[in-house]
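For practice. Any example?
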Amino acid sequence: MLALAAGGFAVVGASANAPLIRVDLRLTEVGVGAIASVAYLGAMLTSRTGGRATDRFGPAVVLATGLLTMAAGVTVAATAAGAGWFFIGIAVTGLGYGIVNPATNVLANPVHARRRGLVMSVKQAGVPLGGIVAGAVLPAVGSAAGWR
């Protein structure tokens, strides 16, 4: 759940601070709307590969790779001098996010099928949890200290 919360936080975080990012990087309204789309496009592109990699290398390796990829993407986005690099960072964040979900599915898969629905629902609760925390915390932090 916490890995997906970290992913949700990373992906939603830029959208939560979109008003500040818009001014700083001179984004249009379309550019602001594209933030989430670019992140989720990246996630879509790596979800299948993440599943195959999880089967081949194991969930721990793939989960670590996904989290490190998200961290690299957030770093690129947060240090971007212009909109182009910002969106590259957002796309890389999305690539990492797409890798995380298949690995967490394997890690959360209980031995007994009777508990699978409960376990998977608790795991998936991490996605909105990360978004809620990003929306609740980042605008205030961004206003006080800057979105970066």
Remarks:
- The chain is about 85% helix and 0% strand.
- The chain has a mean pLDDT of 93.
- Residues 15 and 36 are 7 Å apart (CA to CA).
- The helical segments are 2-16, 18-25, 29-57, 59-79, 83-107, 116-124, 126-145.
